[in-house]
Amino acid sequence: MKEKIHLIHPFLLALSPAVFLWSQNFGEVPLREVFPVLFFLLLLYVVAWFFWKIFFSDLQKRAIITSFSLVIVLLFNYVYNIFFDNTVLHLRFRWSFIVIFLILISFIYFLKKSKIDFSHLNKIISIAAGVFILISLAQVSYGYYGIYTSNNKNLYLDTKNNEEVTELRDIYYIILDGYSSSNVIKNVLGFEEIENFTFFLENNGFYIADESLSNYPETLLSLPSSLNMLYLDEPNADRKHFSMAENHKVKDILKSYGYKYIHLGADAFTYFNRYADRNINIGFFSPYQSLMWHNTIFKPIQDITGARIERLAEKFGFLDTRKTQWQREKYKLEKLSELPEEKGPIFAFAHFLLPKGINVFDKDGRYLTEKEAKQNGSIKGYLNQVQYINTGIEKVVNDILRKSDNEPIIIIQGDHGFPFYDNLDIIDNFADPARARELVVPGKYSFPILNAYYFPDGGDSLLYDSMTPVNTFRILFNHYFEQDLELLEDISYTVDSDDETEFIVWDK
């Protein structure tokens, strides 16, 4: 029995990719997404163990070949990048398959013929795999500990349940990821046609806060801030911020008035909300599960067979992250247009990974392959997706205004601006390079954002050009729900480059 414990490494190595990825993305991965992956990996381990039993009766050899094959299968993307792509070999997937297959055959032959006692090697691998798993689990445990010990002093918000409020309008909170202000898109990125979208919004009664900035330069900080109407205490609290973005104050207040919460998530930490009355999304895998899949050998096999065999391409197309993203955003636009038909009142939160995100749309909404997206480059890709989502949002706005019985409340907002830091090598090609350099936030995104409001019945009289998202719902609740929430000072925070545990004010 003691000797068999040293053969545990195939089991540990099978689970280690999921546990490690969980620990590294702890803030964005709930348990419900981890358990199915662990179950699948456990099943894969059992299949591999009994498969190699056909060839190896010796337990010591069987353990080694099982671990070797599991590493190839589960970590193929890493193996390919390290040994085949980022080297002088620079082999394509097809050739790397052949090389790895030949290595596997050679290794099987070596094990078959070898008279070596592999017990010591099995002990070393088991200890190393065990330590790796323990370190990853310790990181996860530390993350949970941080949730329960941290306390945001501003999290409590004094609100009153005013039963005299009888006109409950549908509320649409639409987040366009990375959508910069029209001034930046026109004057820095050089896209003058953005004025057409601005004109459309204003012509339909929207107030555009022209000088608006995001409060934080990334989504996982920006959304928990705006949805809880407060500033955050610390930067490095991903799990806490994920929890705040999911279980937020805005939906609590609205639910107390009888609102139905409809959540249209993105391929990110907003993918699913367990507190929503209804989730609208597509995708066979969550973002975490999709990343696990992409690291395995199954993903390139899918790509190769899918490209050549039409039936397999259709069958396994749901595993293609790019195609799913293209389908998801179109699907959510369609569903948003249908929501006015829902029995209300409703609060719809819709997060689009547009215009920031993987470039899968051309300006007319056609699907772009990865090769086409690379040819376009990041700037053109971003502007293409600006044009596509503008067209989509125009239709959504028209449909919501036309179909709603009572005038709705609509907020269209960027969670942060354009990622200038990704484009420093071509910054001189911008229409206004000097201004582009001013907007750079080290390591993250810029702050100027689109911030547009359809606040009927006098609600827009409380809006102002420099308002930031942290005050969005404070103003909304004060006007439409007769609350008395104090407006906060409009501040943009970024992480201190000298101390990553602290925020500092961004000096614009």
Automatic annotation (TrEMBL):
Top-level taxon: Bacteria
Pfam families: Sulfatase
InterPro entries cross-referenced by the UniProt entry: Alkaline_phosphatase_core_sf, Sulfatase_N
Sorted UniProt keywords: Membrane, Transmembrane, Transmembrane helix
Membrane-spanning segments: 37-56, 63-83, 95-112, 124-145
Stretches of the chain forming a coiled coil according to its record: none
Cleaved signal peptide residues: none
Ranges where the Sulfatase N-terminal domain occurs: 203-473
SUPFAM superfamilies, A to Z: Alkaline phosphatase-like (SSF53649)
Protein name: Sulfatase N-terminal domain-containing protein
Organism, as annotated: Candidatus Campbellbacteria bacterium CG22_combo_CG10-13_8_21_14_all_43_18
